[in-house]
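Quick illustration, no need to memorize.
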Amino acid sequence: MCGIAAFATTKKNTSCLGTIISLLIELQHRGQEASGIATVAKDGTAHTYVSKGTIFDLLGMSSLLETMTVDAFGVIGHTRYSTSGGYGDSEAQPIVVGNDSSFRIAVAFNGTIANYKQIAKELGIKNCRSDVTVLSEAIRKLALESGKDVVEALKTLSSIVIGGYSAVVLTSEPRLVIARDPRGFRPLSYAYNGEEFVAASETSALEVLGYDDWVEVPAGGIISYDGKSVEVVTAPGECPTPCAFEYVYIARLDSVFNGVSVYGVRLGLGYELSKRDSAEVDVVVPVPDSGRAAALGYSRGRGVPLEEGLVVNRYLGRGFIMPPGMREIIAKLKYGFVRSAVSEKRVALVDDSIVRGTTMAAIASRLKHIGAREVHVRISSPPFRYPCFMGVDVASRKELLAWRTMNLGDVACMLNADSVAFNNVETLAKVIGLPSACLACFTGRYPFKGLTVDDLENMFSR
């Protein structure tokens, strides 16, 4: 669930760096382990800057200031949430491949390539330490076989990848190419006004910068910009299956994904959950921030007041996307509690999902410690039971709370709650409202013909 962005322009006196930094700030919720940018000047010269941490850590690099004076054609950027390779900045993006100065490419992508080792073997790629290195080397190799045509390379790549990706590619020609896999697992949108071409993982980032006339890249879409015109092609594929977890947790509330409002889905999921619940509660407390819209829908449906019983520490980032070892620490430090909102009350604690259970158990325990009579955990998504191989860092069933304890009473006990309830898969699909979506993390049915969870776990490793 990384964040990717791109910007290219023919306008004079336009700060490519300022635009890409702004976009990455708006996408920081999609990754906080590392960040980076790559620029290509109009003469094809490339510069890359990466740093551990957020985009603000990247801004502290003194050498980055030199980029502000470069006559840039375009720039791409990335905020990292690791799903392959090491954690932190071990695989920071963008990465540049190609020793031949006449054709180098910089690549940043969001997703996971489950069969990257197989692709490396088939294409003779020696550097296969992670999926991003294989993806980048594969794009360049296939492009060289097609007369340095990155568009043709991405069309070929789309037919051999098992996994999900949205990618931005900057070439030394110079040219900017963006692409989304044929299943459309991960979001990607762009805007073009005749002088500026801008792309970002989420529509909200584009709108904040004033690019209101955005277009979502279709599943299998490949968009190319050379400074003169925009070329749009679509790689052949099967029925799109966009990620349902983008609606549940990953994407920002003010984003649109496949024409569907993220806010509308979360609000609807909370409302539907309320109609399935008969527990007596006095107050509804959201787990901020991603659980807030679902809690509002639940509150409206039950006719029970919503109280802000938790105060989030905004300087700690999102606990779910923290590397292992940091999650338990973040769970303890991330939230403050408003005693007056919950004391002597039966609390419906509403969140979007439970994956590992680390954060929810800490919250429920603390609520009871400060005086809540009862804590009833209410989750607006179905139980997260299976790992994702398309862009979310849950690579093993051992990490999944709902997989380990299928009985709801046992789950409630592990969470230190009086009860726990989830929405079901049918409700999630109905509220999203698309003809199809990827629900594999809830059902174990992956949209790759003939492949089971065991096959994918054997295929993929960090």
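The two ends are 15 Å apart (CA to CA).
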